[in-house]
Amino acid sequence: xxxxxxxxxxxxAARAFHRSLAAIDPSLxxxxxxxxxxxxxADGAFARGVCAAGVRPAVSAxxxxxxxxxxxxxxxxxxSHVVAEAIALHLRxxxxxxxxxxxxxxRKRSNAATIERSGAHYVDMAVMAPVEPRRHRTPVxxxxxxxxxxxxxxxxxxxxxxxxxxxxxxxxxxKMVRSVFVKGLEAITVExxxxxxxxxxxxxxxxxxxxxxxxxxxxxxxxxxxxxxxVHGRRRAAEMRESAAxxxxxxxxxxxxxxxxxxxxxxxxxxxxxxxxxxxxTLLPQVAAxxxxxxxx
Length: 297
What we know:
Strand content: 5-15%
Number of helices: 12
Number of domains: 2
CATH class of the largest domain: Alpha Beta
Radius of gyration: 21 Å
Number of strands: 8
CATH topology of the largest domain: Rossmann fold
């Protein structure tokens, strides 16, 4: 039975998983390592925040994985292979690494090979929805030779999961392909409405879209799409570049995913901190002006 869980990367997903896992099984122990601790040390602000969350901060990735039964790799897409190579040096037989990073199938297969050389098990886990409000109960897809082995514990801890077979990359393939639509819809909505605002034809465009796409709640839909890109654009851009690599590897064109990544990146660069996002009619012209300024820098 799993008793000790380590997180490599302690951002939104890891924090959400920890909160609900700790609630469902108070006997679980947790540790976390994040590269933000490197400059601050064990007594820095980030480490203190980890402690405040009820998690023991680790001084290194090695120290985090040493006591763990399960390890969740939850870092930025460009760091997933770096983490796999770093922790593989310190893993032992029987440990399980859940790679929840949003990366291409090829990257996950490479990570799996790196991890499994150590004797540890690797599970490709694709998180298929925002981690709030369901946290570790957010629907996930699983693939890898060890996916079936961990199933009893996943059931005990009340994960909402679906097994897709023994081939690493099978789970993330679903997410990478689906994300082209989800993040692409965000990008299309954002660019269309920003262009409409700048062209002084917003009301006509919105009325036309409402008539054509009646299934969307246009009183809330634009606000949600802008929120997702402003708050999470940088992370979504990294994911879309992995989607582009996925499509290219399939012999298709990753150009669309790359263009979506550019929009997400630009929205993430604008950010959400300077805006009141409660009123879309006020938010839209402010974001439009910020995007134009950013393009001129």
